[in-house]
Amino acid sequence: MVQQLQERPPRVDRSSLSFVPELVYFEPASLDYPKGRQIFDWVTREGIPYRMTTSHNRITNLPGDTELEQYKIAKQTLVVGLRKTLKFDTSKPSAEYAIPIATGCMAHCHYCYLQTTLGAKPYIRVYVNMDDILEAAQGYLDERAPEITRFEAACTSDPVGLEPITGSLREVIEFMGNQSLGRLRFVTKFHHVDSLLDAKHNGHTRIRFSVNSKYVIKHFEPKTSRFEQRIEAAAKCAAAGYPIGFIIAPIIWHEGWQEGYAELLESLDQALPHDARGDLTFELIQHRFTKTAKNVIEKRYPKTKLEMDIEKRKYKWGRWGQGKYVYPDEQADALRMFISEHVFERFPESRIEYFT
């Protein structure tokens, strides 16, 4: 039985956090864990309204008169529960496995693949049974020994945006710091990294920041940190000894794209301290979408300027038998060559891990 919504006390000051939920659901079992109690105490102390639910699958009555209203409210809703499925998904080409510490994201990036993978329930879920998750990770490490195993922590969420609430990312960082064969990777559009700077990472975690042209950030990445904030955070992480990287994604063919991406890499060159450039990586991902994603995005962001004209795209089959629409070879090659040349011009010692 779902409890009634609690009466709302004064609003929470959002200035120091990347995300403060409007509504929180707790699965009862989550309160049996220290992290669950910690989050519950924070929610009640800050006066954030909450409900109890037997399972996140039972959440069917979010406020809102229309599907679009419910979607916007869901993006401000947090669900605190247990991760019951401990079989990790693969995460090529970034890593061998995705380590699940959260699902869902508070940002409103129009192009995001989570639009479809999370279906009709885009609320944000965090998992409090971290011991179980890390034990499962240990099993994968043991299974692949003596090879190094990489884990991606941002396949289904932006964990940096949730870190001030959960502290889970720091736990995984320090777990991997103690593993001779374990490596962690995650990508973020948020700058709230201060709580990670003194973590005992031992160089085993690579923090990557998602960057893009001003046009893409302005039109397609609402509710994320500014470009300048991301670069400042990258410099902090590098100074703390983390290997860092940048993901330019999605690379979008728009009017003035050459100038936009040249300006991006020039700005990155000017802002990133030289002592933060050791072992620097880039990952380049062109914009792609499925028919399902196109339909969902156009419903959720009806005024979007995101170009999704199937007639202008090439159909590319995926590994699971589902295809995506990408740029035709001529455009894709032009994007790859232009950005790659500018990367190596500005950062000659860096490496581009892939273009896809």
Characterize the structure shown:
The chain is an alpha/beta fold. The chain has a single domain, classed as pyruvate-formate lyase- activating enzyme. The protein is built from 11 helices and 15 strands. The strands form 3 sheets. An 8-stranded mixed sheet has the order 4-5-8-9-10-11-12-15, with helices on one face. It has a 5-stranded mixed sheet with strand order 2-1-3-7-6, with helices on one face. The protein has a two-stranded antiparallel sheet with strand order 13-14. Helix 9 links the parallel strand 11 (244-251) and strand 12 (281-286). Helix 9 runs parallel beside helix 11. The radius of gyration is 20 Å and the shape is globular. It starts with 22 loop residues before the first strand and ends with a strand.
- Estimated radius of gyration: 20 Å
Mean pLDDT: 90
Largest β sheet strand count, sense and barrel closure: 8 strands, mixed
State the domain count.
1
Remind me, CATH topology?
A: pyruvate-formate lyase- activating enzyme
What is the helix tally? 11
Q: Please report the distance between the alpha carbons of the first and last residues.
A: 46 Å
Q: CATH first level: which class?
A: Alpha Beta
Helix proportion of residues, in percent?
A: 25-40%
Strand portion: 15-25%
Task: Briefly note the structural class of the backbone.
Answer: alpha/beta
What would the keywords be for this entry?
356 residues, alpha/beta, pyruvate-formate lyase- activating enzyme, eight-stranded mixed β-sheet, five-stranded mixed β-sheet, 11 helices, 15 strands, 19% strand, disordered N terminus
